[in-house]
Each structure stands twice: as C-alpha cells, then as structure tokens.
Specification:
It contains 17 helices and two strands. It is an all-alpha fold.
C-alpha cells in the first residue's frame, strides 16, 4: 500500500512560515531574490518544494526531513548546538536558518556548494543526516506516489521514469527562495524612516554596531538594503582550542583523504577535527583554515545557539566572545589564523546591552509571530 503524502502545502506555510510572499514581492530592507535562469519560480513548483522539504520518507529511518533541522516553527533552525539526524546521530555543525538563504552566494558554513539546488542534494545521503547510501530510494518513493507523479508532471512535464534528483533539487530550492523576511524594526527605522520603530537602546546599539564594535565590517548594511553578511569567510577564533597545536597534521591528513576520494560533505560532518578546518576543506588554502561563512544576523534572536559549532548559547555569550577578541575568556590562546580586525573591543557593560538590544531589532514580525504561535500550540 502506498503511503499518503504528508499534508503540508498551504496550511503549513500559513501556520508555521507566515504567508508566502507574492512572486516578485520584496520585504523592506531586502533586495530582490536572485532567481537562476534555469529554475524560474512558479506557484506549483514552490508548493511541490514545500512537500519535498517536509517529507520524512527521504531518510533511512523514515523520520528525518529537511524540516527536521530547519524547523519552520523555530525560525527554520533546530535550536540545537549541532543537528541530529538519522537515528539521532549528531553531526559537527549548527543548522543555519533557511530564512534569507536565497541571498547567500554559497551554501553550508564552509561554502562547499554554490547554490540551494546543490545544497539540497547532500543531507539525505550524509551518514549523520538522512542516512541513505544514495538517492535511489528518494526517486523510488516519488515515482510510486501518485500525488508526486502528478505534481512533477505539472511542474516539469516529465513522466515518472523521467523524474531526476535535479528536478527534486530545483523544487526544494524554489520553496526555500520564498523563505525571506525583512520589515524588522531596524528596517522600518533605517530604510522606512519610522523614527519610533526602534527604542533608544536599540539606536545606541546600532551606533556600537557600526562604530566601536565594528560588526558592520562583515555583517554589512548598505544604503537601500541589508543582508547583514558579506558572503565571505573569516576566522574569528571559534573552535581554535579544539585543534590547537595540531592544525598542520589535521590539514595534511584531510588533504590526503580528499585526494583519495573522501567526500568533503561527509568528512566535515562526521570528523570533528576536519570540521574545524572550515573553508580550507574547500579551497585547500592555509589562509582559510578555520574560516567560516559570515551568517546573516536577521532573526538572530530566534536562532540560538550561535557559531558554526553552536558553542555560544546566548547573544550575551556571543557579544562577550567578540569583546574578548575571538576568545571565550580573555586569557585563552589566540588563533594564528585569526582574521584581521578580530581583536578586543573594550565595550562597556552598557554598550554590550545596547548592542544586544539592537540585534533583537533585526527580528521580522512574521517570523516572531510564527515562532510564538508554534510555541503556544505546543503547550
């Protein structure tokens, strides 16, 4: 007997994600979403992607979907230090939010995939995520499900035997490109001219953000938009103590394994040492050791814990880490690969409080409402 396709569609989008933006609509503070020429958006494709995103059958134990680690009710994260996948196995990386991932020039913390389409293919076949050996079970499930067969025929004009993982990836990516959120208090104050949209503490915090805190160097704000990321990779000192004194050996071992055919995606999520190599795993450039992609700060109040390894539990922890110059404690060792500009900030307690207040002004009302609604429904 065929298993019924999970009921997701418009209901889940309305209750958990907020309403879908109309195609072409852009929230205040954000630029238009970049859409690949070979994967144009359509309502039917977005709905299909929503269903695929939430389908737990695409995992070895039938319990893990994209939404397991990118939960719409948790601002498309899982609020865990590192994600748990197939049979509760833990990886090495914190799940970044899908919200506004459409603006990222590369995907994953180390940028090992160039697009949302390419990214979506990896988790199902990672041994600590979906646990599948290959994509064949996914295609078998889709080709034998009448609802999927009809949807893929409508969206891609293909017969069941012609459905490929390229089609699956394009549909999931199309759905993810609708998960955008702006219109935060900061956007209304900075771009919309609403003088009372932010509190006095948040306005002071913005001055710290662009001034003594130097946060804006990487979490960029432009004249008409703010992605709060430079889409680049930086070593800010996170995780350095875990590989201190062993970097050269770990890097050499990783490169040898990679040359012999080791899969980067699987290696960095199953080997804690390799995980700490960051962008180096992709570029093989020693200047990229322990460099990770600058995440967006939008909705950061709702996406704890922080950093690539989830090592900073709260906003207070994160601000203190930067204030100490890329260290948990002021007397911790400093990474020799530390990016320029990472040094003690000497912020006062008031400045720290104001900076945190400002970060909370980056929360989009639609995301906050969805998260609050889900929390209330869970009680």
């Amino acid at each position: 007997m065929l298993q019924k396709l999970p009921t997701v569609g418009a209901l889940s989008l309305a209750l958990l994600c907020g309403p879908l933006p109309a195609l072409g609509d852009t929230p205040l503070g954000l630029p238009p979403v970049p859409i690949p020429a070979d994967n144009p958006q359509t309502p039917a494709k977005i709905e299909l992607g929503d269903r695929l995103f939430n389908d737990v059958r695409f995992s070895a134990d039938g319990k893990v979907s994209c939404a397991t680690c990118h939960d719409p009710s948790k601002a498309f994260t899982d609020n865990k230090p590192v994600s748990e996948g197939f049979r509760g196995l833990k990886g090495t990386r914190n799940a970044p939010t899908v919200i506004n991932a459409a603006y990222m020039e590369t995907q994953f913390w180390d940028g090992r995939e160039p697009s949302l389409e390419a990214q979506s293919l990896q988790p199902p076949i990672n041994p600590v995520e979906g646990g599948l050996e290959n994509h064949d079970p996914i295609l078998k499930t889709i080709r034998n499900d009448p609802q999927y067969v009809q949807a893929f025929r409508e969206v891609f004009q293909v017969s069941p035997d012609e459905i490929t993982m390229d089609h699956v990836a394009k549909a999931i990516a199309s759905f993810e490109r609708t998960r955008i959120a702006g219109n935060s208090p900061f956007d209304r104050w900075y771009f919309g001219g609403e003088e009372d949209a932010m509190t006095e503490a948040q306005i002071r915090g913005f001055q710290v953000f662009v001034g003594q805190g130097r946060c804006v160097s990487c979490h960029q704000v432009e004249q008409t938009q703010a992605l709060f990321t430079d889409n680049r990779f930086h070593n800010i000192g996170v995780g350095f103590k875990n590989i201190q004194g062993r970097v050269a050996g770990i890097a050499e071992q990783f490169l040898q394994a990679k040359a012999e055919g080791a899969d980067v995606d699987k290696t960095v999520l199953t080997d804690p040492d390799a995980s700490e190599l960051g962008r180096f795993a992709v570029s093989e450039d020693m200047t990229d050791v322990a460099a990770f992609k600058t995440p967006t700060l939008r909705n950061i109040e709702l996406t704890a814990p922080y950093m690539h390894d989830g090592s900073q539990e709260t906003l207070e922890d994160m601000v203190e880490f930067y204030n100490n110059g890329g260290r948990v404690n002021p007397d911790d060792p400093v990474s020799p690969f530390l990016s320029g500009g990472i040094r003690p900030l000497d912020l006062s307690d008031q400045q720290k409080e104001d900076l945190i207040a400002f970060l909370k002004a980056l929360t989009s009302p639609s995301v906050a409402a969805a998260t609050k609604s889900a929390a209330n429904n869970a009680q």
